[in-house]
Amino acid sequence: MKCTFMLGVVGLLAGGGSSCFAQCKEMISPSNHKKVHYHTIQLADKKEYLTLSRTGGERILSYHNERIGLVYYTQMFIEIRFWTPQGRFSLYSAANDRSNWQPIFVLAAPVTPKELEKMKTVTKIEVMLPEDTKVFNVDAQKNALVNKAIACMH
Length: 154
Hints:
Layout: H1 2-19, E1 25-28, E2 35-45, E3 48-55, E4 58-65, E5 78-84, E6 87-93, E7 95-96, E8 105-110, H2 113-119, E9 124-128, E10 133-137, H3 140-152
Antiparallel strand pairs: 1-2, 2-3, 3-4, 4-8, 5-6, 5-9, 7-8, 9-10
């Protein structure tokens, strides 16, 4: 009886321990076969979201928009602004991953640990597209998702 009880306790502890990592999703990159840790943050709905991803020491913030129907011929960089109580800062995207075989418009920017730290108190995010500005207010619930995603980057 004691043995069964102890196995049950160990099982609960092991299961509870793995739930700490449940917030971080993992996949194997098809291009370099390395493990990628990522977390998705919904912005407006399921068609517009941010993804924070980490491969080794590289951290990337990506803005995804499934509604943009046209292929944007973007300028060299597109600004993504983050508003916090301490002020604002910007990341600049350097990629446009829109292609015929991937029907999602993606902007990606490298992000540093210092910028991740600033993101913890974000209140508003602006994506400065060539013909439109997307503004997303970040409430307490979305900020909690941002902080979960940041925790996956360490």
